[in-house]
Design goal:
By secondary structure, the chain is of the alpha+beta class. It has a 3-stranded mixed sheet with strand order 1-3-2. The chain contains 3 helices and 3 strands, in the order E-E-H-E-H-H. The C terminus is likely disordered. It is globular and about 35 Å long. Strand 2, helix 1 and strand 3 form a beta-alpha-beta unit. The longest helix has 22 residues. Helix 1 runs parallel beside helix 2.
């Protein structure tokens, strides 16, 4: 289920993966919430970076997780990244040029 994030991935031709994070004031009005989401995304990306290979990954916040739902947001993001690794169809369907 894609509640909190939209993830877009595209091959970058380099050896390492890179991440971009998009959080808007419309979705998360408080700076503390936007920063918390960025920390969650960076933490998950740091763990999965070596396994992602040469992809640029952009993570867009769709809905701000509540304070107690950080573990659900992490799980959702990990699930999304593992699905993308297993299926190039998912990666290519989320490519934005």
């Amino acid at each position: 289920m894609r509640r909190h994030f939209s993830v877009f991935a595209r091959p970058n031709g380099a050896a390492g993966a890179r991440v971009g994070i998009v959080t808007s004031k419309k979705v998360a009005p408080r700076a503390v919430d936007r920063n918390r989401v960025k920390r969650i995304v960076r933490e998950v990306f740091r763990i999965w970076r070596a396994r992602l290979g040469g992809f640029d990954v952009v993570v867009r916040l769709r809905r701000c997780p509540a304070r107690g739902e950080g573990h659900l947001a992490r799980r959702e993001l990990v699930r999304f990244l593992t699905e993308d690794r297993k299926s190039t169809r998912l990666i290519q369907s989320h490519v934005r040029i």
